[in-house]
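This week, think about what follows.
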Amino acid sequence: MASRTDPGRLQDDELLIVRTFEAPVALVFRVWQVRDHMIRWLGPKDFTCTHLEMDFRPGGKWRACIASANHGTYWMRGEYREIEPNSRIVYTFLWEDGDDQPGIETLVTVTLAEKQGKTVQSFHQAPFLSVESRDGHVGGWSECFERERTYAERLAREGNWDA
């Protein structure tokens, strides 16, 4: 399934990307939960996650760095607010350089649902300072989730979820 934003239902400061995975909900949740899984897909195409700290619990902090030879290095951080196993993850997101959204912390909600043996992942992020800023995130997150899907589906085929 392609990524999408649905302007008919969203405000200008919101982003929604939906993906369907050929993988169980528990596995898709696990690739968000376990550092050794997440570090393999976090970042757009041509980026590598070079640093990832996670305290995956409500109130726990996270911090990551993604890097690309063509685009440079980007640090981000936040705090987990809510975690419902195999269902929902809510966390804050802030670019440390502040160039795109100076001082603006966004709230991300990831929901997972089983549908006909597949997992539907919905990613919602807000607020953005402008439509341009929001739209600038669509490509990066879409590439990131394409990497996540490829990785999760490979793990599902191999039957090896442990990291």
Remarks:
- The two ends are 27 Å apart (CA to CA).
